[in-house]
Structures are given as structure tokens and as C-alpha cells.
User: What shape does this take?
Amino acid sequence: MKINGNFDNLVPNYLFADIAKRTNAYIAANPDKKVIKLGIGDVTLPLAPIVVDALKKGADELGVKETFKGYPDYEGYAFVREAVSSYYASFGVTVDRDEILINDGAKSDTANIGDIFGADNTVLVTDPVYPVYVDSNIMAGRKIVIAPSTEENGFCAMPDDSVKADIIYLCSPNNPTGAAYSADQLKTWVDYALKNDAIILYDAAYEAFITDDSPRSIFCIEGARQCAIEFCSLSKTAGFTGTRCGYTVIPKELQRDGHNIYQLWYRREATKFNGVSYPVQCAAAAVFSDEGQRQIKENLSYYQENARIIASALDELGIYYTGGKNSPYIWLKCPNGMGSWEFFDYLLENAQVVGTPGEGFGDCGKGYFRLTSFGDRDNTIEAVARIKKLLAR
Ligand code: MLT
Assistant: This one.
């Protein structure tokens, strides 16, 4: 037998697994040191009370014959899709509940969506990039081209008309840089996709962090229904990193190569995915209730304040950064010309603070570093104090 040889083309470790391994090795060698983790974007606040109540109620229903449920609908229960549709309406976007499929988080679907596309398509990613888009397409043997996000373009890579791509991954607000596209910039991408008969895979996992008039959805943009699929997640919005739930939106009119894209994805899901558990879907629906929105906004504000604390320390140190405003991520330039991994080691060894080396997100991330605002408040304050002490020398 032969294994999928494309795996030989991957970098040896998934970025966050690599960081966890290095961090754990440091902790094992230095058991007396308190390490503060601002690396992977994992939340630290508990689920909102309304979400926990909905989870419990959903579980209780499963214990009663009359309300017991077996396999969920492949596309998710109608009550959750209805709730997501109303959420879109709250910021002026019309998405029918039958265009929404409930998923177990944006990571799986942004990777798995490749199942419906041929291996000979060219994939465009902006660089630096969330590694999942790249790795999943390397596994499928697709050619990948990059659009560089740099200080010069404000980390908002734009299309190059001389490059032909079939599948385009965009993430806004961006992981890792925190930059958010404007409506005009997204319109340029939509026009490029339409011109090239391409599909935009739009990751909106961080839309809840937008505080200005940046679009919350690709479907705010005219023409996007003809060329885009949107992925969203409750991981960062409502603390579901462990609970697992999100949604994918595919406009019913989206067609390519004589096929309806929703139908293809539904076919794929029915074959390979048995859906998200009933209690978790109840919890997800609770997020979109008025009280749910009020409660999760308290948590979002907490993380936004953490971002402000980190950003103001960088301001004091005179270190260049982006993000932190429409995003939980702060993307900074490594001080004193250090490389990303060099700065990772320097910070871990001298301040016991873990971040994410920008280089792990692609070549354009070289010399940059990402800190997250998802930490506990006291730990964030302590990490910032240590960083200031170390770098103010
Ligand atoms: C990150 O830190 O980039 C994210 O937490 C990774 C993810 O969402 O899978």
C-alpha cells in the first residue's frame, strides 16, 4: 500500500502543536517558573450562564423518552439555523436558514470544503496565513500561491490580476495579523473572484471583534453571493473552543462547473459528518438570543480590554504592531531585528511568556510575533509587566 505522499510536503509539525511541545519542554526543565501562555488563541473565560443552562436543558431532554433525539439533521437543527439567520439580519445581511449548515467549528470546514474541489485547482492564500488553509490543501496536492500581506499594504493583501487562482482563502479580521478588510477592499476581491470564476472561502471567525465599520460578513459585498462561501465559529465569539460549534453559509445560487455548491457540500456532509450534538446546538442557539448576545459581549469586552493593555505596553516600548482593535490578536514586529523563533525563545527564557512566532504563519510573518488577548486578566497584566521590564532595558 501507499500513503498519501502529499503528507511528505507538509512542515513536520502543526504550528500550535510545535509551540505546545516547546513550551512543555521548557516547563518540565524549569518547574519553579510560572509560564504565561499568550500563544494559541484559546479562550479562558467560562461559557456564559445562558449557554450553560441551554446545554444542561438539552442534555436533560436527551434523558427523557418523549424528547430524546438521535442523529441530528445533517445541516443542523432548523432552530439554530433560524437563530444564525436572524443574527445575520441584525447587521443587515440576508442569509436564508436553508443556506446555513451547522458545523463543529470553522477549522474543520475550511479544511474539509476542499473535498468538493478538484485537486488541480490553484489555491490562493494571503501570507501570513492560518496554517490550516495551507496544510489541508497540501494534503490534497493542490498548488498554492500567495498574496503577500505586509506592513506596506497594512497587512491587507490585495489580488494581483496577473495571478490566476481558483480557490481564494480570506480571513477578516485576520488571523494572525488582526487586520480587517474594508468594504472597498473586499469588493476588489469579489470582482477578482468573479472575473476568474473562482470561489472565495471567507473565514469570519473573528467578526464579533469588529468595532468599526469593517464588514462583518463577505455577504455585505455586492456580488459575493455569486462567488463566496463563509465560515464562522462560536469558538472565539462565545468561548466554544472546547464545546465546538460554528456555521458555514453557502448561497443557494452559487454554482461552478455545472454544479450547485450547496448540494455538493450537503452531499459531502451527509456522507462524512453526523452533525453537532443536540445540547451543543441548543447552546449555540442561546448565544444568538438577546440575552445571549448581552452576556457574550461582556466576555468580548474583557478580551478587548486585554488587547488594549497589551497594545498600550507596545506603544510605551515604541514597538510597531497591528491588530488589537478589531481583533483579539496583536501582531508585533520583533524588537532589535530578532527573528520570530529567536524572539519566541528570548521571551520564553527571559520573561516566561509564550507567544506565536509570525514565521509559523508563512514567510511574510518572518520577524513578526503574535500575542493573544484571550488570557486571564491578571496573567495578561503580569505578562505585559515582564515584557516591559525585559524590553525597556
Ligand atoms: C489560533 O491561535 O490561531 C487559533 O486558536 C487556532 C484555531 O482557531 O484553530
User: Anything to note?
Assistant: The radius of gyration is 21 Å.
